[in-house]
Amino acid sequence: MSSNDSRRRKLRESGRSLVSTVLSWLVGNRPARSMATVFLAAVLGLAVAVGVGTTIGSDRIAALVVETWTGTEFHVEVVVATSLLVGVGALGAAVTSGFLPTFALVASVPFGVGLARYGTVYAVEQFTMVVSLPEAIADGTGAALVVGLPLAVLGYLVGASLRRIAGSTRGRSGPRFRPG
Q: Coiled-coil annotation: which residues (predicted)?
């Protein structure tokens, strides 16, 4: 075997290793759990849209977030909801070990809030307009990216760190307790 063949084989193997590493990071090591998480995220997003649309409304939620963000008025419920989303992301990352399922889970909530705008009426000068489904989907997608992505990254980092810490202490903690 020539040295060129050996180099090509090593390059192919390292390329496969890189692809499998990236896929593992994106999708996770447990594809069935990842798919279940994405399905759960879709259901959660629709449930949030219905819940927000029939109760408080997405405009009120946006006002609460802006007031908290700008410091004009502090709303503890915004901080609690944000913390819960990071916690859900950490749990999702610990369970699936994939970023995309974690992102889907966390981003489903802001997506649902944006989707809740569907059918609402707003005024532009002397005209009244109704939010169409494409506009509501665009609003939800924007909210998922602007709000959900940073929270998903933070949740993923926390969950992956916890998973790594739990995995590194398994072998050194002595005999495992087994009830019964």
A: none
* Residue bearing tokens 């009120």: 60
Q: Is residue 142 part of a domain?
A: yes
Domain enclosing residue 141, as ranges? 34-164
* Cβ–Cβ under 8 Å, residues 86 and 161: no
Residue in this structure with the two tokens 């649309």, named with its chain if needed:
53
The alpha helices in 71-121, defined as continuous H runs, are 76-96, 99-115
| Tens digits of residue pLDDT in 4-37 | 666 666 656 665 666 676 777 777 777 888 888 8
Q: Are 26 and 98 in contact (CB under 8 A)?
A: yes
**What is the model's pTM?**
0.77
The CA dihedral of 123, 127, 130, 131, to the nearest 10 degrees, is: -60
Look at the chain and report how many structural domains it folds into.
1
On whether residue 169 sits in a domain, the answer given is no
Q: Are 92 and 36 in contact (CB under 8 A)?
A: no
Q: Is residue 121 part of a domain?
A: yes
